[in-house]
Design goal:
single chain; DUF1178 family protein; DUF1178; two-stranded parallel ribbon; alpha+beta; 6 helices; 3-stranded antiparallel β-sheet
């Protein structure tokens, strides 16, 4: 398993797990990779330090001041995990209208139906048309939508 640090054209940094370097290259070529924040498909690998797992335990020593501070301050990973859990909870509170997303969003915008929190699927063209008409929307990455993960 290969783990790469990735970055989109807008500077969003995220992690990707791949079977091999070739699998990563293949997904890039096919346009399958997207930024989980903005859905940009312009993704590049960032330089990362190599990590060699030797199987040996790290030496134990007295806790340093940085270790003591980290016990009080949540790690970046912990904060990211908490944020993702909160975002998933928000997504669960929306109604999944599936392929009717563009029509439902437009009907709400025009006042034909009562506004409510919805999610669903729309083509890029439908999204652009909605945005041009002043309908506010944002992409939800699949990893935040429990229904799409199943």
């Amino acid at each position: 398993m290969k783990v790469f640090d990735l970055q989109c054209q807008h500077g969003h940094v995220f992690e990707g797990w791949f079977r091999s370097r070739e699998n990563f290259d293949q997904q890039i070529e096919q346009g399958l990779l997207q930024c989980p924040v903005c859905s940009s498909a312009q993704i590049e690998r960032k330089l990362t330090a190599a990590r060699i797992n030797t199987g040996a335990k790290e030496p134990t020593s007295a806790p340093s001041t940085s270790t003591a501070a980290s016990a009080v301050t949540p790690s970046v990973e912990t904060m990211q995990s908490q944020a993702i859990k909160q975002l998933r909870a928000l997504v669960r509170q929306t109604e999944d209208v599936g392929a009717r997303f563009a029509q439902e969003a437009r009907r709400m915008h025009e006042g034909d139906i009562e506004a409510r929190a919805i999610r669903g699927q729309a083509t890029q063209k439908e999204c652009l048309e909605l945005l041009e008409d002043g309908v506010e929307l944002m992409p939800i990455p699949a990893f935040l939508d429990d229904d799409r993960l199943q």
